Amino acid sequence: xxxxxxxxxxxxxxxxxxxxxxxxxxxxxxxxxxxxxxxxxxxxxxxxxxxxxxxxxxxxxxxxxxxxxxxxxxxxxxxxxxxxxxxxxxxxxxxxxxxxxxxxxxxxxxxxxxxxxxxxxxxxxxxxxxxxxxxxxxxxxxxxxxxxxxxxxxxxxxxxxxxxxxxxxxxxxxxxxxxxxxxxxxxxxxxxxxxxxxxxxxxxxxxxxxxxxxxxxxxxxxxxxxxxxxxxxxxxxxxxxxxxxxxxxxxxxx
Length: 254
Description:
Layout: H1 56-93, H2 104-119, E1 134-141, H3 144-147, E2 161-166, E3 171-176, E4 183-190, E5 195-205, E6 209-212, E7 218-226, E8 230-235, E9 240-247
Antiparallel strand pairs: 1-2, 1-9, 2-3, 3-4, 4-5, 5-6, 5-7, 7-8, 8-9
Helix pairs in contact: 1-2
């Protein structure tokens, strides 16, 4: 009677060829060549190929390198998205004469882009950041007290408008240029890490005539986006302010 040869065991999940190692999942080894079955009478031969299992240290090192690569590319992608938003915002507000010529639709569009930038803001505590220090140029606002769109254009502030802040002294200064050169200085009282109460203490008309404030000049300001070159703020009445850094060394008078 001839010998019966048992069929090869099936390669299924019930036959665990691969097991977990003590440190990490072992490398999965896929054999591309078909399995050859030898006769039970054939002499066993040692394989000329050997597989060296990588050490736990090497596996973990490779995993750390992979995580670092993923983190780097995610950061680069995020920075690119943020820069594109900034460019889109600046291009949108450029023809709007600081907001004076903006229609309601354009105001809504600017607000939408600003909110997207605010959502990716990396400076969570701007009142503690050195990035806030210096003189900022006002590029866009919805504040009618600044735009004065109901006045004839010749009676508005047609030159550049600046706002300076020093976080170490908690002082702020608003400065108009042509044609009035009005100025105002204020103390900042932090309400949280992003919002301050603004208490004006002095005004200067035509850049020459000083007027002491009598407690009427008050408001609040929240810094919602901040980086090296751009700042977005919102007032307590819902007004939007977009500013660009022009002089980081400027100091507000005490």
